[in-house]
Amino acid sequence: MKIFTVDKIREADQFTIENEPISSLNLMERASTQVAQWILKYFPKYYRPIIVAGKGNNGGDGLAIARMLATFGYQTKVYLAMGTDGSDDFNANLERLDNGRVDIIEGYQSLKERAIDKNILWIDALFGSGLSRPIEGGLAELIDYINKAEGKKIAIDIPSGLFADQPTEGKSIFQADTTLSFQFPKLAFLIPENEAYVGDWTILDIGLSREYIDQTESSFELTKHIKLTKASKFAHKGDRGRCTIIAGGYTRMGAAVLAARAALHSGIGLITVQSCQKTINVVQQSIPEALILKDCNEYSLGDFLEYGNQDVLVVGPALGFAEKTKKLFVEILKNYKGQLVLDADALTYLSENTELLQLLPKGTILTPHIGEFDRLFGKHDNHFDRLKKLQQKAKKHQIIILLKGKYSAIASPEGQIYFNSTGNNSMAKGGSGDVLAGMIGGMFPLTKNPLQTAINAAFLHGLSGDIATDTYDEDYVTPSILIENLHLAQKMCTQTQ
């Protein structure tokens, strides 16, 4: 699903109006119908909607929604926060409003009297996504007051006061429990600092032109489904590929085991773990399927072993910071010619020695969380700036960077960003990243495409977490449970292909 800027969304609206053809008023009616039907589905009629309407097209949406909810039997009221003279479509919907069914709230004080009612459904239709300056004065006071009021809160298109495509400067922003947006998500919905305002968000299809959507480029996409690459019916273990996990020094072998098990359950034909002498039994007992590259060092990794026949190396989970291990990492960067996946401690090495970024082979996959990313490329004041840096660095070094988190962002060497739509906060636990790194290693030899591998692995990883929380409480879910649920996630993706 493409994520368009506000300007591109306006173009999509206009293209649809001109080429369907449909009037702007009827397109507004279509969008408002989708909202009203969604509310009817999720909110019983003991809720009493109050639509707080501006005077632009977002306010016009609100008036149309008010009329429809009243028709459905809700006790609906409208507060005209900016008066009765607005855009053409606002004025048309104001004329259509059935005052016998919809009450117009007169005065701010009358609105305040309803702020203690838990069954009020506050619907924000003040400003749409075109807002580009902070809300001030009386409207800011109104928003701040509603935010403190009892009841449920829904934003139409985007919470008023929130900027769609850039960091928000103002402090008065509607705090929605749910945001109902049209056709496309806004980039702002995927930004961590906006969670308190956006709440849960839902995209309502209003039938904008498919021709426009298909032919218009966007730098951002949201991955809603994936297509898995399957091995040939006649495949042998070599065809499924060879992956080596270089991870886990003494007392830290859990990370290596998690990564290796994840690779094993993600399609790899042969899995190998490089292990220091003291931990060989840990690998053999935990993963009998794994081969071992025996490192001569007792407590850490330091040997550059033969990797020439390996399709992919996963380097970094709990690797440790011994000097000999750092030297091993540099030797790998200088000599290994296959696919590299760098995670955790390997990323710390890079951040401490940024000149090593020049040694990364084209197509290397980095998997930092936000803290690791900022250590690598500098601190950022907001996530919008971080995403710009993500694009720049992926292009500069011709690598794939998977920035982990809710809506993990995967940047291509061309600077395209693919946001992941799966996953939840049950996965915010040590070891989840090790599982993801192992999955990437296990999936790459079949796809032979590092970008697609990163996208697919992130999606499956998150889907496993979503499946887990259908069975267990989020606090109970562990990285090992993610691996146990991989088969269900894989089946779900295969069935939708």
UniProtKB/TrEMBL annotation:
Point out the signal peptide segment: none
**Single GO molecular-function term?**
ATP binding
Q: Which cofactor does it need?
A: Mg(2+); K(+)
Q: Where along the chain is (6S)-NADPHX bound?
A: 57-61, 128-134, 157, 255, 369, 434
Q: Domain (YjeF C-terminal): give its ranges.
A: 220-493
What keywords are annotated for this sequence in UniProt? ATP-binding, Isomerase, Lyase, Metal-binding, Multifunctional enzyme, NAD, NADP, Nucleotide-binding, Potassium
Q: Which InterPro entries match?
A: Carbohydrate_kinase_pred_CS, CARKD, Nnr, Ribokinase-like, YjeF_N_dom, YjeF_N_dom_sf
Q: Which PROSITE patterns match?
A: YJEF_C_2 (PS01050), YJEF_C_3 (PS51383), YJEF_N (PS51385)
The EC number of this protein is: 4.2.1.136, 5.1.99.6
Which residues of this UniProt protein bind AMP?
404-408, 433
Which catalysed reactions does the entry list for this protein? (6R)-NADHX = (6S)-NADHX; (6S)-NADPHX + ADP = AMP + phosphate + NADPH + H(+); (6S)-NADHX + ADP = AMP + phosphate + NADH + H(+); (6R)-NADPHX = (6S)-NADPHX
Q: How does it assemble?
A: Homotetramer.
Q: What is this protein called?
A: Bifunctional NAD(P)H-hydrate repair enzyme
Q: Which organism is it from?
A: Marivirga atlantica
